[in-house]
Amino acid sequence: MSVMNNFDVIVIGAGPAGLLAAGRAAELGGKVLVLEKMKHEGRKLLITGKGRCNITNDAPISEFIKHVYPNGRFLRNAFSSFFSKDIIKLLEEHGVESTLERGGRYFPASNRSRDVLNALLQWVKNQNVEICCGYRVEELLVEDNTVIGVKANGKKLLCNHVIMATGGKSYPATGSNGEGYELARRVGHSVVKARPALVSLETKGDLAQKLQGLNLKNVKATVWVNGKKRADDFGEMIFTHFGLSGPIILTLSREVVRELQDKNRVEVSIDLKPALDEQKLDTRLIRDLNEHGNKKLLNIFKLWLPSSMIPVFVELLNIDTEKECNQVSSKERKQILYLMKNLVFKISNYRSFKEAIITSGGINTKEISQKTMESKIVKSLYFAGEMIDLDAETGGYNLQIAYSTGWLAGNSCMKNK
After folding, report:
1. For the chain, what percent of residues have pLDDT higher than 70?
2. Residues 335, 370 within the same domain
3. Which residues pair with 343 in a beta bridge?
């Protein structure tokens, strides 16, 4: 087996976490090598935000960590060392202007994730980081409980520190297929079971399919597990050919996936009128029915619902909508009200890792120093990004976790040389 030159730091993975780790270590004078098994760097970064790249979020640290699971507090040191304003500044210095959009989300002004990746690559190359694509790491080399290098493509690569930033299991076509977990296991780390997160949900029956393509805003989705309320979220969602998707569904999916894997009965109810409690909604229905007393009931549904939803809604009600509004009984009005507040979908499954935006689970944070990102089990081994057991809601939070943990790992390994 051939042995290559000694490096200060070898980073495994050329995604956002790996690039931030490599760039920071090189800024501090390190000789840094990045190994990427894919043919090109940053494959997953290119598809984030539907190709636009939701760079980060402008929430303060105290608020930011509330959107991270299972333990956002683990990231306090990482966020304190490198946060949203820092990545925005770094990108601006390399020609990428950012715009702030609804929900505190930062996007590149160009709406091109490619520009974000190119800026990060330019930055690390300016620091003389060496990047080798097409190199798959097969083994971490450990002696006396200290990492001394890696074996990749049959070659022994020696170094003083290794930073693992191999990603999770979501979007495996981009290279994040969970291989990093196995490498860490072999040197003594435990891995919290990986599950798809920020993933769309499949539903029983054909109700969602009948509504396919309909996008709803300002609605509330509630997760029910064995008949008990578990979680809810307010915002935007969409119906698909297989079930439910969109921001609030993706956020709630973390809860749903775990419960489905535990064989529990899961339902999601949609409140189409969350701004009105039942009494206020009933008052509105009475008013509208009275004002349009001589019109057919079917004709005033457009006052209450999107037009494409009306036929499906009416079918569920099983009410004669040809009758005039002044003939609608109190019982029928209550049926309409109930369905507006409780449009229920039985959840049968969730989409696979191939479609999940992020991975829940990964390297147990109890085995990682939150002050440095160094392993508590193997000296000079560091972790960064999605492979750690940390995942967050949509909105730029997950990418910021990658930048911050990568930066802290790169910073720490050079300070500890």
Report:
1. 99
2. no
3. 270
CA–CA distance, 204 with 12 (Å, rounded to integer): 41
The 8-class DSSP code of residue 173 comes to G
pLDDT, average across residues 238-242: 98
pLDDT digit string, tens, across residues 354-384 = 999 999 999 999 999 999 999 999 999 999 9
pTM of the shown model: 0.91
Same domain, 143 and 10: yes
Quote the pLDDT of residue 207. Answer: 97
Q: Which two tokens stand for residue 112?
A: 């091109």
217 is a domain residue: yes
Which pLDDT value is given to residue 1? 42
In a domain, 188, yes or no: yes
Q: Compute the distance between CA of residue 272 and CA of residue 340 in angstroms, rounded to an integer.
A: 5
Is residue 356 situated within a structural domain? no
Burial of 89 (0-12, 13-18, 19+ CB in 10 A): exposed
User: What pLDDT was estimated at residue 71?
Assistant: 96
Residues 261 and 284 in one domain: yes
Within a domain: residue 355? Answer: no
Of residues 350 and 4, the one with the higher pLDDT is 350
Q: Tens digits of per-residue pLDDT, 32-77? A: 999 999 999 999 999 998 899 999 999 999 999 999 999 999 999 9
**Averaged confidence pLDDT in the chain:** 96
**How many structural domains does the chain have?**
2
Domain boundary among 323, 350, 377: 350
